[in-house]
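Final report, Chapter 2: Outcomes

The project's central promise was a pipeline that accepts a single protein chain and returns its three-dimensional structure in a standardized token representation, suitable for archiving and comparison. That pipeline is now operational. To close this chapter, we reproduce one record exactly as it appears in the project archive, with the input sequence first and the structure output second.
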Amino acid sequence: MMDASDQQSPTPLPPLAQGALKGIKVLDLSRILAGPTCTQMLGDLGAIVLKVENPKTGGDDTRQWGPPYVMDQDGEASDLSAYFMAANRNKRSIAVDIATPEGQAVIHRLAAEADILVENFKPGGLAKYGLDYASMRADHPGLVYCSISGYGQTGPNSHKPGYDLMAQGYGGIMSLTGEPEGQPVKAGVGIADVMCGMYATIGILAALHHKTQTGEGQQIDLALVDAQVAWLINEGVAYLNTGTLPQRRGNEHPSIVPYGLYDTSDAHVILAVGNDSQFRRFMEFLGLEGLAEDARFATNPARLQNRGALNDILIPALQRFTMDEVIAGMEARKVPAGPVQTLDRVFASDQVAARDMAIDMTSTAGPVKLLGNPLNFSRTPVTYRYAPPQCGDATAEILGAADPFEQD
């Protein structure tokens, strides 16, 4: 009889050539960032994505949000801005004016073949074209229809436009971010848009599962502000249960001490001392072993109560070391620590290279560099089939095809 230790793990199956969503058809009427983030994710997972753009405006607004732009062979700026390219890989662009009867007919023709439609017009904005969910459901009952807006399809603010900065402010995250005596600060990238796009992807996949079981489509009503409120996580739940407003703490953590950004003699270092045993090992490195036994600092609740007193000791103590010395000392003692890297160091790192988090593609305007997808599947890996498109560059090919969603 074989011992469990003698059993060999099964040989992993090789990855397949196509993604998990191979054959799923997406009609993308969205623009800016939240919707395009969602549809790019679906495209990376193997779905066929047709991006509908307005020929009168030059397409997605973010095509004009530069520089930088990809420069064409003549040295002229193309319509591929870095902002646009960040969320529009694995899509093909068709220029369609939905304000015309001909354009509306095109959308209905494509919707008849599609599994998913994603849009981010103001609530009610598509009704005048007969492309709102109520109108589309009658003709396409199996369509998963995802509507993204600033405040949602209902509520007193549903008529207001939605922008990432407004969502970060209204949803409360800015009130938590920044130095205690400074202004509220937004995140450095459009995180309200990006998180809303991630929620949209999750919702669409759940609706697709329902459709496979019942054949029934549905509408997903998603708001930037709702997604941002959900993203308050522990701080939001703490307020709901205590009624106490959280305070801005800069880079410090509301529930863990020491946990934040500290100065060394030559650079900043991040320390994340998550438990009492790590704190003891941290004090050993600093030569301050007695503090680990001090009743003010021996436990995390005590350190929270005496945050200021502890920082008065830690700040000058850490400035006796370089950043590299602190990181090496912490790693040797299994205490989490790390640098604050600028993007040149991020993208020059062996870790980013090993994880394929920067990729090269070739667009119709020229070569482009893009961020990789962080999902890694053993059998259905993400694929990079199409570089971000120029506005309408596939219109004739797609609308002239018998099957506009022909598989890549």
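Archive annotation: The chain has two domains: 25-232+353-399, 268-339.
This record, like all others produced under the grant, will remain available to the consortium after the project formally closes.
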